[in-house]
Amino acid sequence: MLTFWEEDIPLAAALCERFGWIGNGLQAALDCRNKLRTRKVLESAKLQRYSAPFAQIKSVRDLTRETARIGFPCVLKPAWGAESQFVVRVENLEEAKNAFEYIQANMTPKFDTIYSYGTEIVCEGYLPGAEVDMDLLVQDGAVKFHSFTDNFPTKEPFFIETGDAMPSRHEASDLAAALTMGREVVKALGLTHGALHVEARICPDGPRLVEVNARMGGDYIYDWVQTVWGVDL
Question: Whole-prediction pTM value?
Fold first, then answer.
């Protein structure tokens, strides 16, 4: 059982559990879909080295306290979001307050039904470094295939994508470290089957996780992997 749509990942997982089909469990699906829950899972698994400082922001008071702890620049984003909607880098408290108020006012199910899951807002430490995506095929919890895609630098502060390239041109040692991270994160989240899309940054102190999508990567990933590696995701 699989889905190509981000908002249907929990539904697909629930169906797998209900009918005993092969696929990921609902808990794992929800822990991937929600960025706050993903960070908490890594924390519980003692994998903070792959994460970033984070906090849930419910008020301006929370924002003031947590940005002082996390430091600037930092990133505000919807916990349940997709497609980089409302993800913004902020450089100071004034920018953070403006972004928080804008996200709160506009992040609604009317704007996108994906926010029917919830409207929590997360603040994360900014991760410096090149972004690289991993597309994995997992069977019974083991990674059977992996492919890397380099992301061109995004247009900040809104992280607008500018392009991708495959195969990756990063150092083999950096990619090996990223793959190790991917395997450990997948295990911690309890993902056991299917195509997974893992977004990461190669930072000066090692790879850091951006997010995990329990589905195949979007855009041209399917065609590129088939063309470059001869693998049908």
Answer: 0.94
82 SS3 class: coil
Domains in the chain: boundaries: 14-19+26-34+127-228, 54-125
Distance CA 150, CA 50 (A): 19
Joined tokens for residue 62: 């929370």
Fold for the domain defined by 14-19+26-34+127-228: D-amino Acid Aminotransferase; Chain A, domain 1 (3.30.470)
Angstrom distance (rounded) from CA 50 to CA 130: 15
Q: Does domain 54-125 have CATH number 3.40.47.10?
A: no
| Per-run averaged pLDDT (10 residues), the chain, 233 residues | 88 95 96 96 97 97 98 97 94 98 94 94 97 97 97 91 94 98 98 96 97 92 95 92
In whole angstroms, give the CA distance from residue 37 to residue 30: 8
Report the C-alpha gap between 179 and 21 in whole angstroms.
28
Report which of 25, 7, 6, 5 is spatially closest to residue 15, judged by C-alpha positions.
25
